[in-house]
Amino acid sequence: MTPADTMISVEAKPLPSRRNDLALVLVATLVMVAVSALSGFRDLTDAGGDNDNLLRLVEVRDMLAGQGWFDLHQYRMGLEGGFVMHWSRLVDAPLAAIVLVASALTGSMARAETIAEVLWPALLFYLALLFTARAARSFAGAAAVLPAVVIGAAALHFIGIFSPGSLDHHNVQLTLTMACLSLLLDAPVQRWAALLAGLCAALMLAVGMETAPYVATIGACIALLFVADPSGEGRIARDFGLGFAGVSGLVFLTTIAPSAWGQPQCDAFSTVQFVMAALAGCGLAAVASLDMANATLGRRLFALGLLVLVLGAVVVSLFPQCLAAPYANLDPRLKELWLDNIEEAQSLYKLVIYNQVAVVERFATPLVAILLMALGLGRGGSRRQDSLVGALLVVAFLVSAWQVRGSTFSIALAVIPLCAWIAKWRQRAEASPSRGAALRVAAAWLVSVNALWACAAVAASSAFETAEAVKAASVDGNCQGKTAFAALSQLPDTTVLAISNLGSPILAYSGHRVFAGPYHRNVAGNLLALDTFLGSAADARSVVESHHVGLVALCRGNPETRLLVGRAPDGFLAGLTRGNLPDWLEPVAETRGAQLELYRVKLGG
Known about the structure:
It comes from Mesorhizobium jarvisii. This protein is mostly helical. The chain has helices at residues 3-12, 15-38, 51-64, 89-106, 109-140, 145-159, 170-186, 193-207, 212-228, 230-255, 271-289, 291-294, 297-318, 332-337, 348-354, 356-375, 383-402, 407-431, 435-448, 450-464, 467-473, 486-489, 503-509, 523-534, 537-546, 559-567, 572-577, and strands at residues 73-74, 83-84, 495-497, 513-514, 549-555, 585-587, 596-601.
């Protein structure tokens, strides 16, 4: 299908059809919010162990309390003075704006935060689902929109990053990714789509480095499409490059302090990402605009190959440290006792061995979608559309095989070929109605809903679980709910010695400070807490005294506690779990037998 054919087909569609997309997506969003409301918005009082959502709320509070726009220190975590977080203010800003407006309307900061925790994820859910539906329409026509809304809503709800209280940046990244893809699919017939897609790609990178593989894939696809079809893709490549470079420069100027412009950071947007984005975006735009560079296939290949060589030379010569693995410099102890035990950082290999249920939950629908595209069964558009959707889906699947967190993207991207598959079977069933055709449509629907795969996997796993496994899984008291920290919030502010899983909740639910938190930049604070808990009581006393610790927190049911106790059965933390209190600690009476037990330090009276 040529761009001209696509233009004719798009113009022939009545405008209300696209307006109907808005209504369908709105209904799906309201249903999602209603489901959460029926549970009493449980996620707002029980973060489910997601430290990032809570720490984002703390960051927003700190900024509203006067912390500088360029100051990303988290002063209440780590050693004295805190440490610099790698997150972007681009996510803090809209959240702070919602809180400010809501507090002005309600007169209550607490109520305003609750509104923000519900409204922000719901808004992102709406946008992500809308762009998914738009992408499905561009990929497979109007018949794919309803399946995209239904299975897309189910998929986005299942991955859990759009539930109330989800303030972390992953939902922003996924929304921008779906927006970028949708705009690029529409780019041949929408004048400003490619420029806006470049804007989205730049923001994807600015919000977090997790999306770097997808940004690189999008850029490579645009470049290769331009090589194959310069007349049809030249404008798209030029506009995308300009949008990508321009917005990257704007982000650099507005979110990075001038004093830090010369400081390269590999894990956050900095001079590294700005230089690479500026070179790549401007280079692509130049190749697409200059006749001397794009007149023939050979010239296009030479020009783009030269651009790739320049980018590679810049990285190797100026930023070689960014060629290493993301956590290559992490202390081996933190890697073993923290990173290797983070669920979302597990590889597919480890999941196959230790968590087969997660394999089915996270990889079933993306794998089905990839197979459909490989066999040509799920294709709904031209080769151009197939290449964009297929490339992003395969890369997301490969990323998720490395770290399961990538499945957030692969599950969402899988919706597009799956809904095209459903639409194709529906059209065949309508053309030749039969019981067999209806069954095939029903089967396509069932296979495409990720939650059904998850339910089937859980049911199968439960049938084979031993009594011991069931008992272990039912252990309660992991200190994930707000109520567990009620007593702590009433005590005078001090430094609390606690495991890293409790770091963000303590900051969010009280005014205390902590050493540890599950963040790779907080090396010194995490190692101090780790060594203290694994060491002897005498060593712990030395740390407590030198760092002015006022409270020690113990959560027996938390997985991290069990891990550290198993690692050092004679250590300080293991002794606390057995009730062996050193003479310099005394229990806080109101926390006896509670999920979170507190012990007051009584050194020096």
